[in-house]
Write a structure and sequence with these properties.
about 270 residues, 9 strands, single chain, alpha+beta
């Protein structure tokens, strides 16, 4: 018998060896007899692809709009909270509430910023934005209920001062041939030209002015179509610069015919 075979193990060391060998034996059994994953189990473990970003949000990114996706709100398809200027124009309200709209209207306002900027406008003041309510005198939901409408009351700019729809917009101007007509004041010309350019842009479903009815005597009701109903997305020109020009003189637009007729009661 060899010397190693004749060596006696101390009781404590022998116990350690037995425990280790037993542990390896049990581990082997666990591996051999472990249940194999079924096809259903494999399907459950597959990673779910991330939800693709909405096309409207991608457009806002391309325009370098400062925004963040808002919490879900009843009626709004793609809720967006505006956190900076839109097309170079800062939108403000009387109060501290955030401006939350459907992405489609935010896109339209950002694209229309060129028209406001060329008129010397750097700030726009609004009242109603997203608000769950019906059109006055009806049981039909207002477009404000879907975040697709904004009521704008006044504009400001370094070279134009303060212009309000109530005091500076001149009613009864223009026709089907000449949208602008003959405004009597500089402020009236700026607001009328702005109205005609925004109407012609096809960025909006329509714009209701004091000419529409007495409920709109002091604001522009600016309204966009839902994103999946817009006809302009495939033909829209490249984004305009975001920085508004410093000149405050109104642009020369010439004759224009408004498009996107004002539908009765759609507010």
């Amino acid at each position: 018998m060899s010397r190693l075979a004749r060596r006696k193990l101390r009781p404590g060391k022998l116990a350690d060896v037995v425990v280790r060998r037993l542990a390896w034996f049990l581990l082997g059994l666990a591996v051999v007899f472990a249940p194999r994953p079924t096809e259903a189990g494999k399907a459950r473990t597959k990673k779910t692809p991330a939800k693709s970003r909405h096309a409207c949000l991608t457009r806002l990114d391309s325009l370098r709009v400062s925004f963040r996706p808002a919490a879900p709100r009843k009626g709004i398809q793609v809720p967006v909270e505006v956190t900076g200027p839109l097309g170079g124009v800062t939108y403000r309200t009387w109060g501290r509430r955030a401006l939350v709209l459907d992405c489609s209207l935010v896109y339209s306002l950002a694209m229309a910023g060129r028209y406001l900027g060329e008129a010397g406008i750097t700030e726009a003041f609004f009242s109603s934005s997203y608000q769950r309510r019906n059109v006055r005198g009806t049981d039909r939901p207002s477009r404000h209920s879907y975040g697709l409408a904004l009521d704008i009351h006044e504009f400001k700019g370094k070279n134009i001062g303060r212009l309000t729809i109530q005091d500076d917009y001149e009613q009864g101007l223009g026709d089907d041939v000449d949208c602008i007509g003959e405004p009597l004041s500089r402020g009236g010309a700026i607001l009328r030209i702005l109205y005609c350019r925004m109407i012609r842009s096809k960025l909006f479903r329509f714009i209701l002015s004091p000419d529409y009815d007495e409920d709109h005597y002091n604001h522009f009701h600016v309204e966009a179509l839902p994103w999946n109903e817009r006809p302009d997305l495939s033909i829209r020109p490249p984004p305009a610069p975001e920085v508004a020009p410093s000149q405050g003189s109104p642009p020369a637009v010439g004759s224009a015919s408004p498009s996107g007729g004002e539908e009765s009661g759609a507010r």
